[in-house]
Amino acid sequence: xxxxxxxxxxxxxxxxxxxxxxxxxxxxxxxxxxxxxxxxxxxxxxxxxxxxxxxxxxxxxxxxxxxxxxxxxxxxxxxxxxxxxxxxxxxxxxxxxxxxxxxxxxxxxxxxxxxxxxxxxxxxxxxxxxxxxxxxxxxxxxxxxxxxxxxxxxxxxxxxxxxxxxxxx
Length: 169
What we know:
By secondary structure, the protein is an alpha/beta fold. About 25% of the residues lie in helices and about 20% in strands. It has 6 helices and 7 strands; from the N terminus they run ββαβααβαβαββα. Strands 2-1-5-4-3-6-7 form a 7-stranded mixed β-sheet. The radius of gyration is 14 Å and the shape is globular. Thiol-specific peroxidase that catalyzes the reduction of hydrogen peroxide and organic hydroperoxides to water and alcohols, respectively. Plays a role in cell protection against oxidative stress by detoxifying peroxides. GO terms for molecular function: thioredoxin peroxidase activity.
């Protein structure tokens, strides 16, 4: 269990669950088929912002965390970010529905599932009491970590906010 820090290589074995967005399953009540998303492979040659929330559809995550990333997508793209992804312990169906509820289409933001908080536990950033993913943000630039911060104050969205990530780019 090693916390990621700037300069570290992003782990080579990170696989999330994911339901790709599609026009035919774009309605919130439509279900897609979950697939494995090999983040280590997909992100190896890209600049990525990964932010984590304790749970989809929860108040802090839905009101204070997600909207900042949606609003700042153009600014993140201007800073050279290829992929913005959010991860939570929720299953891929819930994550897909949360993306649709936020009117995110296509691959504007990837809504990834970290089943059993496996990845978050591997970097020491899972909540041991609840088993959920912690609230954090990581910038990965061509396989190297450039920014990695976890919120230590309950309900806070400071170090993992879109503004904090933008300031680090």
